[in-house]
């Protein structure tokens, strides 16, 4: 390798100790077993409590991901109010609350309210004192009922969209002209202001003629 002119000499290191610096992942099977044992220990420690906290179903951000549903950060105060759960009670029942989130669609709010109501129906709340049950605690019959722990999620997310089955095209759909409808609606929106001004001017002229 030659060097020209009065340049800095290169300090290239082509014989580094590669074997000492390479990273290996031979502990994957051991890590897998350790994680599994940790999950079992968590289940035993929690007893009858749910493994995970309940989170809302929200749409992904941007046009690319808004067709998919995922678990959000927490339920809004409006959703909790619709489901009849107070904010303070929600924190004790394993429901995550996010006071910053806003409901921007009725459909999304309805989905999460139904999610909360379903969770509330399945929930068994043990009283702090066996002899003194408080309001909201489960009855003695409900406490004796067998408990289940569905995995991996407490409540599965609803389907993001319900596919429509095959059917015949109706005559109304066949005769519908989408291009023409869109053009007319755009034209109506464009000329709405001018038409309102023209109609108001006409009314004023007619009122002046009657005088």
TrEMBL record:
GO terms for molecular function: RNA binding; structural constituent of ribosome. The keyword Ribonucleoprotein applies. Keywords: Ribonucleoprotein, Ribosomal protein. Residues 129-176 are annotated as: Disordered. GO terms for cellular component: cytosolic large ribosomal subunit. GO terms for biological process: translation. The keyword Transferase does not apply. InterPro entries: Ribosomal_eL13, Ribosomal_eL13_CS. Residues 134-144, 165-175 have a biased composition (Basic and acidic residues). Belongs to the eukaryotic ribosomal protein eL13 family. This is 60S ribosomal protein L13. It comes from Multifurca ochricompacta.
């Amino acid at each position: 390798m030659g060097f020209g002119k009065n340049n800095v000499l290169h300090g290239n290191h082509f014989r580094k100790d590669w074997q000492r610096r390479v990273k290996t992942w031979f502990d994957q099977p051991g890590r897998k077993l350790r994680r599994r044992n940790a999950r079992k220990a968590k289940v035993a420690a929690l007893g009858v409590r749910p493994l995970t906290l309940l989170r809302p179903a929200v749409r992904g951000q941007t046009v690319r991901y808004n067709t998919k549903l995922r678990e959000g950060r927490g339920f809004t105060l409006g959703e909790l109010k619709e489901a009849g759960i107070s904010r303070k009670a929600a924190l004790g029942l394993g429901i995550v609350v996010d006071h910053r989130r806003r409901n921007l669609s009725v459909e999304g709010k309805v989905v999460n309210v139904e999610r909360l109501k379903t969770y509330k129906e399945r929930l068994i709340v043990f009283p702090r004192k066996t002899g003194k049950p408080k309001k909201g605690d489960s009855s003695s019959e409900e406490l004796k009922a067998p408990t289940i722990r569905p995995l991996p999620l407490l409540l599965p997310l609803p389907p993001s969209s319900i596919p429509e089955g095959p059917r015949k095209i109706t005559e109304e759909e066949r005769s519908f002209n989408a291009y023409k409808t869109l053009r007319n609606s755009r034209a109506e929106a464009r000329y709405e202001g001018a038409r309102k001004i023209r109609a108001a001017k006409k009314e004023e002229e007619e009122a002046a003629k009657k005088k």
